[in-house]
Specification:
CATH class of one domain: Alpha Beta
Mean pLDDT: 87
Largest sheet: 8 strands, mixed
CATH architecture of one domain: 3-Layer(aba) Sandwich
Low-confidence stretches: 429-433
Distance between the termini: 20 Å
Strand order of the largest sheet: 4-5-3-6-7-8-9-10
Strand content: 15-25%
Oligomer: single chain
Number of helices: 15
Radius of gyration: 23 Å
CATH superfamily of one domain: ANL, N-terminal domain
Length: about 425
């Protein structure tokens, strides 16, 4: 959190709200331009994609030594992008391919990410990235009737110190301190929802789940209605909403939701309107394709550090339009790295291990997290109030999986530095919740 944000979050709502400036004015003409583009039914996605891909491809091979060398060695330096088949001739790049070539690029905004795999990566984004991002994000939220004047509570990894909430006028949101136990802070939370018309809860699915779960344990039915009454939907970002989270929020709280796929590198943004793990990409945002079941993206608006045919690390299946563009993609195994290895060096995806089997543990456990010690040896961290270790161990369905394992019971889940509750963890650190 920046020093400026610390000052803003410390201000009372009555003062901070006076700093509110309409979002389109803050982000400028590029926000408005992309909003119009998204809504323009006259734009042909195929023609637009080919034109934009061609521009970034021509620019990259001339201006960046990394791409000049790559395309020369691949024999595509003279390639002209006119069809999707031409795009397929361009080499695919990975995070490791360009990590050591950062000095080949330049820009004013340097970002970094560890990604879901925990593999660090630094990259430049263009000055218009934020306007482009929010133009598309607001288009997704509008599918749940969102307006920029609506108040929301946002729960990500923000640490507000001793404060429970902090209001930020730019996003018209109350940031919740994700490192505070919502059950213990019930009074302040009820006061906020009573005083203001909160229409959306936005954030990491795991963080929203944790917030609602701890709160529900201490609420009366009448108090629960105070939280529920004005919520139109949950806005799930940055994580895949796992089945146990979706079931809890949909059945216990009766909340609608929408989720989307995106990543820090800003090559692909897609949304799951039907809640069936089929993500529809925006071709006004970037170019989306699948090669050998790998999700590939191109940031054709970023001329500071183009990522052209960039392997996201996700394994997917796809449906296609008749013109060859991807209509939607389904994440089938999750990001590479989200697996364990058994004694025979077989890779077992965590989504299959945890959610593809019936574990009786989900009858009483809030979270199941996994740490690989070595091939064939695993620790399961189970967040539960159940204290009978033997019962917890027996509640895991691990038939026909060649591993040895032990179970550690936790009162609270393991949370990453960014505030996410991931399936695959490196080590156990107390959350302080």
């Amino acid at each position: 959190m920046t020093y400026k944000e610390k000052i803003i979050y410390s201000l009372p709502f009555v003062i901070a709200s006076r700093l509110k400036v309409p979002f389109p004015m803050i982000l400028g003409g590029d926000y408005t331009r992309f909003r119009k583009m998204i809504l323009d039914n006259n734009i042909d996605p195929l023609s637009y994609s080919l034109e934009k891909f061609s521009l970034i491809f021509e620019y990259a091979k001339v201006n960046f030594p990394f791409y000049t060398k790559l395309y020369s060695e691949a024999g595509v330096s003279d390639l002209k992008i006119k069809t999707l088949a031409d795009i397929e001739k361009v080499p695919i790049i990975t995070k490791s391919d360009i990590r050591d070539s950062l000095d080949s690029f330049s820009g004013n905004i340097l970002n970094n990410t560890g990604g879901s795999s925990g593999e660090p990566f630094s990259f430049y984004i263009d000055k218009n990235a934020q306007a482009r991002e929010w133009a598309h994000m607001h288009s997704i939220w509008e599918l749940k009737d969102y307006r920029i004047t609506d108040l929301k509570v946002t729960i990500t990894g923000t640490d507000l110190g001793e404060r429970i909430f902090g209001y930020h006028p730019t996003q018209n949101e109350f940031k919740y301190n994700a490192y505070k136990n919502s059950g213990i802070n019930k009074t302040e939370i009820l006061e906020l929802f009573n005083k203001y018309r909160i229409s959306y809860i936005h954030g990491y699915p795991s963080a929203i789940y944790n917030f609602l779960y701890e709160l529900e344990k201490v609420l009366t039915p009448q108090e629960k209605v105070i939280i529920q009454k004005n919520i139109r939907a949950c806005l799930f970002g940055s994580e895949f909403p796992t089945p146990n989270i979706v079931k809890y929020i949909s059945t216990v709280w009766k909340f609608d939701y929408i989720s989307w796929y995106g990543h820090s590198e800003k090559c692909i943004l897609a949304y799951d309107l039907l809640k069936d793990n089929n993500y529809t990409p925006f071709y006004t945002y970037g170019f989306t394709e699948v090669a050998q079941h790998r999700l590939i993206g191109t940031s054709y608006h970023n001329f500071d550090m183009p990522l052209i045919r960039y392997d996201t690390g996700d394994i997917v299946s796809a449906d296609y339009y008749s013109n060859g563009l991807i209509k939607s993609f389904k994440i089938t195994e999750g990001r590479i790295g989200e697996f364990i290895i058994d004694r025979k060096d077989n890779k077992i995806p965590l989504t299959a291990l945890i959610f593809g089997r019936h574990h009786d543990a989900f009858d009483f456990a809030r979270y199941i997290q996994v740490r690989q010690i070595k091939a064939g040896e695993v620790i399961f961290y189970i967040t539960t109030s159940e204290t009978d270790l033997v019962k917890v161990e027996n509640s895991l369905n691990l038939q026909n999986i060649d591993i040895s394992f032990k179970v550690v019971i936790l009162e609270n889940p393991i949370v990453s530095k960014s505030g996410k509750i991931q399936l695959l963890v490196e080590e156990y650190e107390s959350t302080g919740l």
